[in-house]
Specification:
The protein has about 450 residues and is mainly alpha-helical. The protein has 3 domains: about 5-60, no CATH class; about 75-175, DNA polymerase, domain 1 (Orthogonal Bundle); about 185-365, Orthogonal Bundle (hpI Integrase, Chain A). The chain has 18 helices and 8 strands. It has helices at about 40-55, 60-70, 75-90, 95-110, 120-130, 140-155, 185-200, 210-220, 225-230, 265-275, 290-300, 315-330, 335-340, 345-350, 360-365, 380-385, 400-405, 415-435, and strands spanning about 5, 20-25, 30-35, 235, 245, 260, 310, 310-315. A 3-stranded antiparallel β-sheet has the order 1-2-3, covered by helices on one side. It is elongated and about 100 Å long. The termini are far apart.
């Protein structure tokens, strides 16, 4: 039986707080602070004692209780632990920063305090407001939804929260492209390199020669900026029969170690360049922190190539990785191999980087075999044989002659009139047969 009492020093004090003691499900005596009102403290003691009895009898699941308690924990505490888990998983600092900021933005905008406050309606309301008021694109919408969804999915195995966002759909990014890119042709990449090399101008701390080498390396490898920034002389093995470069998992976007073949032209450049560098010296220091789009825009405009066209912009990612994938596919590399070289997990992602223009499509169309009658005569000869061929008069059949006894036919000399006669004859023939089988009674 639970007991309610005041502490010895407070027994004579009016309005002092009452305490209670009860025996929990493990048999231990627990003391808990109550209220200044004895009746309320007695009710709390009875409640705690009753719950302890239900736990001993297995009518209350301790795991469910813990789950309910975790749902009432502040979201700020959950987010702090979520950040630690992202760091332990090996996520980049940039990814962690963007993910946490997006989660905090949604939670703050929706006035969510504890985990139990998260629901799909509130999240969708915030995202829809961002679409209409902040004018964000579908791609940004999906990034925010992905961030908050990954946070909720992280809480599920920890028994902190069920995922209330399960089933929320992403928006179609194909109908709202805010940043379209276009690939450069090999000739345009060559002009871009020559423009940088001959400019004598330093842009974003990169000299003209270093920019030219950066453009060539990006075009011949398809590496992203962060991956290019990680390259050192140790990343290459040029002495083997098949020269390769290695991108470490910590720098790769999909967090896996990648080994890629080296193009012969790039090998020639690296063979003369690498001996002058320290073993751990970066080829392109901090290029991932530079405004590479500005480099490309200035070097393109110097040779009269527009940075932005109706097809899209030619920023650094477009001039390098997009041109790399497009060049592979337009020069006979099949889609599966191009997907492997681009290190995509899905060929649909590879196709997003493929910019096949009308000229490339026309060249592919020329390779389509032309049909012929005997596999020798070209289609042009077949077309000449069709000249002057038209509809010929058709000879009447026996049925047609028979039908003429009932329907007066018009002269038939062409296909159109013949088809019309056939339909009329068919109706006449059916009418004659019905009349023969069902003669009308003769009036008396």
């Amino acid at each position: 039986m639970a007991s309610v009492f005041k502490l010895g020093k407070d027994k004579r004090k009016k309005g002092a707080t009452y305490y209670l003691e009860y025996t929990d499900q493990t048999g231990r005596v627990r003391r808990r602070k109550g209220f200044t009102d004895k009746g309320l403290t007695t009710q709390l003691a009875s409640k705690l004692e009753n719950e302890a009895m239900l736990r001993r009898q297995g009518l209350i699941d301790p795991e469910q209780e813990r789950f309910a308690a975790m749902r009432e924990v502040s979201l700020a505490d959950h987010i702090a632990e979520f950040r630690i888990s992202l760091t332990a998983k090996g996520s980049t600092s940039d990814h962690i920063r963007k993910t946490i900021n997006r989660v905090k933005h949604i939670i703050t905008s929706a006035n969510m305090i504890v985990a139990a406050d998260i629901d799909s309606e509130s999240v969708e309301c915030v995202l829809q407001e961002m679409l209409t008021e902040d004018k964000i694109g579908h791609r940004t919408y999906n990034h925010y939804l992905q961030a908050i969804d990954s946070f909720c999915r992280w809480m599920v195995p920890k028994r902190r929260q069920f995922n209330p966002l399960a089933g929320m759909t992403r928006l179609n990014t194909e109908v709202d492209i805010r940043h379209p890119r276009r690939a450069l042709s090999p000739e345009e990449v060559g002009q871009l390199m020559e423009s940088a090399r001959s400019s004598g101008e330093t842009i974003q701390t990169f000299s003209g020669e270093l920019r030219a080498r950066l453009y060539l390396t990006s075009y011949l490898t398809g590496l992203r900026r962060r991956e290019l920034a990680s390259l050192t002389p140790k990343s290459f093995k040029l002495e083997s029969d098949q020269p390769t470069l290695v991108v470490q998992a910590a720098c790769s976007k999909h967090r896996k170690k990648d080994t890629l073949p080296v193009h012969p032209e790039l090998k020639a450049l690296l063979t003369a360049w690498l001996p002058g560098l320290q073993i751990n010296e970066c080829l392109f220091p901090k290029v991932d922190q530079r405004r590479t789009w500005l480099m490309v825009r200035k070097d393109l405009e110097r040779v009269g190539i527009p940075y932005r066209t109706d097809e899209g912009i030619a920023d650094f990612h477009a001039a390098g990785r997009h041109s790399y994938v497009t060049g592979l596919l337009t020069n006979g590399v099949d889609l599966a191999k191009a997907c492997g070289l681009a290190r995509h997990s899905d060929v649909r992602m590879t196709m997003r980087y493929a910019h096949i223009g009308l000229n490339e499509q026309a060249k592919s169309l020329e390779s389509l075999p032309v049909p012929s009658n005997d596999l020798k005569s070209p289609i042009s000869e077949l077309v000449s044989e069709w000249d002057g061929v038209g509809c010929q008069p058709l000879a009447p059949t026996d049925d047609d002659r028979h039908d003429c006894e009932f329907v007066s036919p018009e002269p038939k000399t062409t296909c159109d009139t013949e088809c019309h006669k056939s339909s009329v004859s068919g109706v006449s023939r059916q009418s004659w047969r019905r009349g023969e089988l069902n003669p009308r009674p003769v009036d008396s």
